[in-house]
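Figure S7 source data.
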Amino acid sequence: MGQDRAKGDKGEGVPRRGLLVATGVTVAAGVSALAFREELGRLWWQIPGVDKQRTEGEVDQPGARWVAASAANLRLADRPADYEIDKIVVHVTQGSYATAIKVFRDPAHAAAAHYVIRARDGEITQMARELDVAFHAGNRSYNEHSVGIEHEGFVDRPSSFTKAMYESSARLAADICGRYDIPIDREHIVGHNEVPGATHTDPGPHWDWDRYMELIRRAASRPKSTTAAER
Ligand SMILES: [Zn+2]
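Tokens for the predicted zinc ion complex:
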């Protein structure tokens, strides 16, 4: 399950915003108010670490449905321009799919993952853009450099981990690795329990890593997922 964010995780964006505005003011000195606004708008695009233009409902993973996590449970970023993405963190929800989605939408929860996968059929809900830092690993650096995938189920219930869920997650993981050139190995695809300082045990002893890694390798050797438009 997603975890309390690391200390100091929140508020990272504040100094950057301050810097951006200051830069905009300097550049725009002596120009009209309209030109100033245009200049600021242009700079907003150029300076790494600020928001890329986003379209509501847009997903990174073709076929995923979009349900936005609360903005309080993530930090807007511009990955991989500002933070390289080099890891995937595997989680188990310790609750139902619906509950995981509900708590990630709750601003008081202080955690969210990028993806939640349903056990029954492998449906994928994306809740944070891969651009953004979601608070799921309980470790600031890991949050900044990883994509978090939650799997519906319980660590002590092996029947949670269905074939449909493994296959769907493997396809997703293979596509994420493809997007950011992440090596498909256990150094880069880790369990929440393997994150330094982790107090969580997920995905637990029943998560079949050999099977999962093999499925990811197989998925990676097939063409990546495509959107309807691309087909
Ligand atoms: Zn977890």
